[in-house]
Design a protein that fits this description.
65% helix; 3-stranded mixed beta sheet; 3 strands; mainly alpha; Alpha-Beta Plaits; elongated
């Protein structure tokens, strides 16, 4: 993301947080009045949405900070860490909803379907507006994406509450309320798993899922004068910002030719694989030509 895009994302996250606070207050009041677990579950989700949006704002703000001698990559991964925390809070919410839904299935309490319907409809309208605000920024920023999926899950659950309100109002089937809560829990769990999986992959420095490593090695090896690739590492600093280091085995060439090769390799990695940060080390002798990926030693080498 460019700096201007970070600023726009910041403003929209703050506005979205303000709107979601309004949703939370309305749904808590409506849930208590109507005695609807589905509505109170949605309110709980809205509360976590507020935290997610504010944490998302903080993460985007940190990503703007310049790198330092100690934090040489900057603070991009603060946002990834926040996204993981957001995902874990969603798991806690799912557990609470499942427990309360089980209790209500045993003895469904009376629910005011009309009140439930009206409040859920208001929440749905606000959630849709928040989704449109965040949609443009969620693809390249995991922090914004985690907040976006929080709100998206809340929107889907609001739709479920609206449907539940209609059914209860016309049929009086009280078991619909905890059933809708289970549906909400399922949507929340899916969102949490996707964010958690991506965030942990980044922290474990897994290769980005959109990069085919075999294809990358084949393309690099097809460059004239390249005899082999080894000690290859590809990872994400943050979603949308990938880095690569590798050793390239070549013939004994003059420095001017190696500079041209380095530019050719960097251009290939950027245009075909969207890898923006590359470090290439040329060698005339292979360390271990049979090993493409580096095998790191365990512990420190002991000096003889």
């Amino acid at each position: 993301m460019e700096m201007a895009e970070y600023r726009v994302a910041e403003r929209r996250l703050v506005i979205a947080a303000g709107l979601t606070i309004v949703i939370f207050a309305i749904e808590v009041a409506g849930g208590l009045i109507s005695n609807s677990l589905a509505l109170l579950s949605d309110a709980g989700h809205a509360f976590i949405d507020v935290l997610a949006l504010l944490l998302g704002w903080f993460g985007v703000r940190q990503a703007e900070r310049a790198s330092t001698p100690r934090m040489t990559y900057g603070y991009h991964r603060v946002g990834v860490l926040i996204a993981i925390v957001n995902a874990l809070t969603l798991v806690v919410i799912v557990g609470g909803i499942l427990y309360e839904a089980y209790r209500r299935f045993q003895a469904p309490p009376p629910v005011q379907g009309i009140s439930m319907l009206v409040v859920a409809a208001i929440g749905l309208g606000v959630n849709i507006s928040v989704i449109f605000m965040l949609k443009a920024h969620q693809k390249e920023n995991l922090t914004v994406r985690s907040a976006f999926f929080h709100v998206l899950g809340d929107t889907v659950s609001s739709i479920g509450v609206v449907i539940g309100g209609v059914i209860i109002s016309f049929t009086g089937l009280l078991w619909v309320d905890p059933a809708i809560s289970l549906f909400i829990a399922f949507i929340i769990a899916l969102s949490a798993w996707g964010i958690l999986r991506e965030g942990l992959a980044i922290f474990l420095e897994a290769s980005p899922k959109n990069i085919n490593m075999n294809s990358l090695v084949e393309d690099l090896s097809s460059i004239p004068e390249v005899k082999g690739i080894h000690d290859l590492h590809v990872w994400s600093i943050t979603p949308g910002l990938s880095a690569l280091t590798c050793h390239v085995l070549i013939e004994d060439l003059p420095a001017s030719r190696m500079m041209l090769m380095q530019r050719q390799i960097s251009d290939l990695l950027l245009t075909k694989f969207n890898i923006q940060h590359t470090t290439i080390q040329f060698e005339c002798e292979a360390c271990d030509p049979s090993t493409t990926f580096c095998i790191l030693p365990h512990g420190k080498h002991q000096q003889q």
